[in-house]
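Q: I have two molecules that I believe assemble together. Could you output structure tokens for the complex as a whole instead of separate predictions?
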Amino acid sequence: MATEYIVGIDLGTTNSLVAFMQGETPVVIPGEDGLNLVPSVVALDENSVPVIGNSARLQLIETPERAVYSVKRLIGRGVEDIQEELKLFPFRMAEDLQPGEVLRIKLGNKTFTPPEISALILRQLKRNAERYFGGPVAKAVITVPAYFNDAQRQATKDAGRIAGLEVLRLVNEPTAASLAYGLDKKQNGIVAVYDLGGGTFDISILKLHDGIFEVIATNGDTHLGGDDIDNLLITIALDDIRGDMGIDLRRNAEAVQAIRKAVIDTKIVLSSQASTKLDIALPGGKRYQREIAREQFEQLVQPIIDRTTGPCKQALQDANLKPEQIDEVVLVGGSTRIPKVRALVKTLFQREPHTDLNPDEVVALGAAVQANILGGGSQATENMLLLDVTPLSLGIEVAGGVTDKIILRNSTIPASATQFYTTQVDGQANVAIHVLQGERELAKDCRSLARFDLKAIPPMAAGIPRVEVKFLIDANGILNVTAREQRSGKQAEIQVQPSYGLTDDQVETMILDSFDNAEEDLRNRQLIEARNEVATIFAALDKGSKSPAWGQLTTHEKDRIAQLENSLKTVNAENDYQAIRKAIDALNRGTMRLAELMMDTAVSSALKGKNMDETELEEGPTAPHPMAKAEFE
Amino acid sequence: MTKSVLTTIGAKPLPEETHSCWSCGAMRAAQFCGSCGKVQPPEPVDYFTFFGLAPKLDVDVAKLEKDFYELSRRLHPDLSARASGREQEWSLEQSSLLNDAYRTLRDPIKRTQYLLHLEGVALEEQSKNATEQARASGEIKRQIVPPDLLEEVFELNMQLEELKMNRKMGDEEPTLTTEIAKHKQALETKHEALLEELKNLWREWDHLIERNHASKAPAEERAKITGQMVDVLNRRNYIRNLVRDVNAALEE
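A: Yes, here they are, computed for all two components at once.
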């Protein structure tokens, strides 16, 4: 049986990564461009084919109406939740959206739901991993912000399914980071993970105890991150430009994206330099230039950064800990590179934060660790077990529109609660249950998760039926509900109307749609990969023909190689990847002896006392056969 | 290691019936098979029984935590991620039961409330119903002030009123704030003292259970102690709400 790969995926607001456990160490899998970070940007090219990552980022500036970024801000949310985001982000929504419906975002003349867009990013990561392994990847652990609610989690899981991935587990981002940290440190103690990313903020406090990672408390804000800093700077620049130059660019999507790129660069530079110049080319040949000092920048963003204070204090209070009882603070997320953020963390926890880990990669690495644990573990993860919590209380609406909390926040998951319901009218067959998530007293202030209808309750006098409803939050932080009528023993039927979620049928349809496209995508991808390999093998052959080993081949062998080389050239001009692969294999076999000879000459010249640098060895084979694919990667 | 878990945690499995592991047929503990380690279908047991404990209240919390970690390593869904669908389901149910039980038993108040619930004392229900009734009728929930606090509460309420008045006028009177803080301090001390009082009742309860270990202790004696516990919990609850109000007033 082929090796089954389970990957860990950090599906971020700004960037996404895929990682896996190589032996005893988690490593990030680079994309075809050699980069570890895949920007979470999706665009449609001129033929309406989706492009993802860096190439989509280019389109964001050229054709912003066909590109979307930061879609994580929309996942699992409804149109009435996102009015604030719509003011700040160039999301283009389908015009006919109804309240309570799943969002649909316009890209060119097509529309996509947030899970579908996330699925496109996930598919790119899946592809990167498959390319790296040279085999299929079907299972993954995906990270989500700890403070994500049930709907946001469910939507992320749906995205995985649409992308053709079985999501073995959703892991909270700060918890994943703690796994990577713990694997590294192997120390017992209390750790706080401060995770300020592109769009979300989480704080988690954990107890590390002989391999058990027990989350004690978590808190956060799913709409707070680097994006907010960017938006503030964009607004200031736009106001400035309007005031100084009289140009109103607020409706000019391309210009806004150009400004966005410039302010992000500025923000990054100001983490290492005391001042920098914002320089933006405007339509009509004008330039907007402005000197920004770090001090100024810090003053501007202080209110945004300060918003992380409340959740940190709440988490400490919930954990029943004082700042001095925290042994280590781990920083996660790109925004923690900002010196002012580090200063705030230092004040809050009264200690210098731990900054050894790459804040962009640590979540993906932790996801890979969890993937390894779920896959049966290895020596490194043998004793590791994650005990996470639910970030928000789960409640039921009771008389008067009040929330009755049945599972409190920071309860270790899986967690359950049982409620009993009865009827109010003789012969009543249905009972409606409204499930809420949140900390507020009134139902209308909490997040509506779903409305359940208990159906087919056997006809009885009012108050007689006793329906037991069990609410269970699983290890992904997702709610499951079962109901049973106790007098009749009948399993009550539950009809769920998820709020802003996709129904199972919708997800199935999307999976099918994506498979239809996937077939074609797969063929194109195979072709590209095969051609890359052809380029590699030709380069190697060119080198071989100039090496001393070439002279040791017989004429027959040389002719045979030339012949195989020609057939590969011929099939390479066509679009049949399987034929190309066959020709590659044939040429590989035909050059086997050349490879061996090259190796021998390299070794013997080394033995003659030549400096290694002067021989072919430095680029030469590390395996018996230099024409094989892997050596040239 | 397996053995020790079996004897400590599985010591009091399901009474009378014999159970064998669905997978290997060996005799098993309540939650997992001591022989092959497989998770077993959950049985409806109370939280004390789940941890192999008698229904006593003076629980060794350090030991409880150790058992919780030990059982988590057996029951957590992460460990059965590659097992069959029904094993995954059992492990999900077993570990949710484990977490619910641990959360309840490690906390002195929740543990007491849970025991009262097992004893048929509908503590929470009462207060919940009262709250709902008050909400429905729009009245303020009537709080019965514990007699020993009457004087203290009366004075404190006066001062809180005064504080509110002063704030409205834009005055800040430091002596008043100090007075209120002093009352708050006294209430917090009282709050702590009530926990000690509760612990004394635990010991009485535990003695009662130990003396009658083979049979159920007489209902009358049980009810006497649980009644006293309800009283302590109510008083403690009252003080907690009061302290919360004071904090809110001071922070305004």
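A: One point stands out. Chain A touches chain B through 29 residues (CB under 8 Å).
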